[in-house]
């Protein structure tokens, strides 16, 4: 199915769901086919040590037994593995082509998927791995920040007819010619929502080292609150400005296909923290990401051009409302490569963006460096509950 932008009424979508969501029992399988497969995602923070695969396999085994459902499980690489591969690649070539980056870096997630499948197999579960070129997720040819264009339901459905668990390495897809593409840094969430769309699932559970979305990064700022329910609009705005907990395209895809995202902690009892679904933009939050950078251009026209160039390269970039500034969100980009490719003027590093969100409006502040950004985020967060609802200048994507 095309990754379209138009929404469909919920009952029409239900009617379109193929009947093979049910009756997935395999030969000699004790697992009942009582319901559609569950879609679960476990981020890199779930795999701090190799033992984590065995522990997670045990939990998944229990989940199959208790729910009577089969599982599509999207996994990310162990922490640091993707960046270790990037480091090795850059030792060989300082500006490698996007196809090399996509081909190599996504292998880290493949390793993780096979480790989990092996741990499940050890427990007697039938598990397989569906890599990007087999998953039915088709993208454009951007390679490093590829855009999802089509989601074919058959590969996952077929694999789930024959297995208790299908493990999908996050972030992987392929272009029309079958070449491996990468959905971008931290894009396993997007793969998880894509898997839910493929399976016609109403819900996708995303597990992380925090129970859910907080009013600011709880690992950097004190006094944060867990937000139990967040609208797609607020979750997308937070991710868009750099809150790492969810990938912004994942939120958009979930909204378009009406998939509810349930954020949970990645250790037992997998506490459910935040449910993301329809609703107004109402959250008050502060977004901090120390990997993000603001670039200052000589004038507004140059900043506009740079913004378009980064976006064309698939990079998450914001054109800030004040001044000739562009924020590159999430880091891990090669601004020099984009500058050379698009003939942009040189830019000055202006600092780290810190964003205040209030009922759908965003104000991006610029802190000179990381420690200042943390202090600023703390100050803004401390003032959240008392801040007047003044009109805030929006940054536009
Ligand atoms: N507003 C926020 N709410 C919760 N976590 C946040 C927020 N902003 C940033 N984070 C960070 O996101 C991290 C989880 O995202 P990530 O590292 O991508 O997890 P995973 O590896 O499980 O995918 C948390 O450890 C936290 O530091
Ligand atoms: N290989 C991916 C894994 C990923 O998506 O990470 P996480 O789900 O932990 O954010 C990356 O580092 O980008």
TrEMBL record:
Residue stretches making up the Aspartate/glutamate/uridylate kinase domain? 38-263
Q: What is its EC number?
A: 2.7.2.4
Q: Does the keyword Transferase apply?
A: yes
- Comp. bias regions, Basic and acidic residues: 8-23
What is the annotated signal peptide range for this record?
none
Q: What are the protein's UniProt keywords?
A: ATP-binding, Kinase, Nucleotide-binding, Plasmid, Transferase
A GO biological process held by the record = homoserine biosynthetic process
Put simply, this protein is called aspartate kinase
Which GO molecular function annotation, any one, does this entry have?
Answer: aspartate kinase activity
Organism of derivation: Streptomyces xanthii
Top-level taxonomic group: Bacteria
What is the uppermost EC class here? transferase
GO cellular-component terms in the record? cytosol
Against InterPro entries, the record matches this protein to:
AceGlu_kinase-like_sf, Asp/Glu/Uridylate_kinase
Region of interest called Disordered, as start-end residue ranges on this chain:
1-32
Keyword Nucleotide-binding in record: yes
Catalytic reaction equation(s)? L-aspartate + ATP = 4-phospho-L-aspartate + ADP
User: Which family does the record assign?
Assistant: Belongs to the aspartokinase family.
